[in-house]
Specification:
3 domains, six-stranded mixed sheet, binds pyridoxal-5'-phosphate, binds zinc ion, four-stranded parallel sheet, 13 helices, Rossmann fold, alpha/beta
Amino acid sequence: MHADALLCEECGWRGPLALRYDCPDCGYSLSVGYDYQAVSAQDVRDALCAARELWGFRLLLPLRDTKHKVSLHEGGTPLMKSTAIGKEHGVDLYFKDETRNPTCSFKDRPNTVGISVALELGASAVAIASTGNGAASLAAYAAKAGVPCRVFVPEQTSKRKVRQAVAHGAELVKAPGSYSDAFRMCKEACLQNGWANCTSTYLNPYTLEGDKTIAYEVCARMGGAPDWVIVPLGAGPMLAGIYKGFVELRAFGLVDRLPKMAGVQAANCSPITTAFEQGRDEVTPVEVFDTVAHAIADPLTGYERDGTRTLRCIRRSDGCGVSIPEYLIKDFAVLVARDEGIYIEASSAAAVAAVPLMRQRGFLSEGESVVAIITGHGLKD
Ligand SMILES: *Cc1c(COP(=O)(O)O)cnc(C)c1O
Ligand SMILES: [Zn+2]
C-alpha cells in the first residue's frame, strides 16, 4: 500500500489517512496522496496487463490490508466500439460499459473503495447521500460486509433504485427537496452518529480512487489514452478520478499524453457546464428544474466548490463542458439502445448526446478517439 496522506489541493495541508471529510485549514475537499517513488513502473504495467477487476490495481489504491476489502467483483468492464453513432459523427467512438458492474452502475467502483477503507479505519456503520445508484450500490457492499447502512435520497429518486437499496437491507431516508438536501441531512447524521460517510461528491476522499481505475482499464484496452473522455457529471469526482488515473499513468510512462475531459450535465441542472459555457472560473449553485437525468441532477447547494474543482480539472485537461437539452438526452437513450445494443439510463445518454454537440462546437475533430462513460443501466430508471 503506497497511499500515505490526505492532501488539500487548495492550500497544501497534508495529514495522515483518516476518516476526514474536509481540510482543517480551509474547508476544501481532500485528495489521497501516494508515495509514487515507492511504486515501480513495471509493477503498474503488470497490473494493467493482469487486472481482471478493480482490486487488481490495489498497488495504487488506498487500502492497507486486503482482509478489509469488500468486493463484489466490480470493474473489468468492457470497452465497446460504437458501430453506428461514431460513424455517423465521423469519430472513433467507444463505450465504457459500466452497466456491467455488480449493481449495474459505475458507483460500485467508488463504493468498494470507500467502504473497504472505512472499515479498515474502524467504522462500524456506513451512510451515503445519493441520487439512487450510489445508495443501491453502497447498500449491496454493506450487506456483503455485514454492516448497517443508511441511504439518504431525494424524494424524486427512481423507485427501482430505492427498491434495490432496501432489498439489500439499507435503512432509507427520503429527503424532501433536491440531492443537496439529502447531502446535508446525511452529513449531519454521520457527524452525530459516527457513521462513515461514503458520499462521493469529493466528500469522501477515498471514493475518487475507485473512479480512477476506469482510466487504467481504458489504457489497458487501448494501449494509451484516447483523445477525449466524456463523463456525465453530478459534482464530478468521476471525471476528476479518471483524469487522475491518466496523470498517474503518464508519470509511470504508460501513456504519453493525457485525454481532454468533457463534462456533461442536463441543461435543466447544469451548474458546472453552464459555468464553463459562460467562461466563469467559479461554479455557483443552481435551482433544479425537472430533468429525466435524475442521477446527475445535483444543484451543488452548499458545496459549490466541488463544482469548481471539477471545472478546474476540465480546463486543465483542455477539455469542455456541455449542457444537454432534455430532448437530446431522450433521443440518445433510444439511439444507443436501438443502434448499439446497450440499454442505458438517461444520465449516460447525456454523455453520448454530447458527441454531435462537441463536433458542432469544434471541440471534437473528425477521426478523434473518444470514450463515453456509460454510467448506469436502463433498467434502473
Ligand atoms: C453518480 C452518477 C453520475 C455522476 O457521477 P459523479 O461522480 O457523482 O459526478 C453519472 N451517472 C450516473 C448513472 C450516476 O449514478
Ligand atoms: Zn486546505
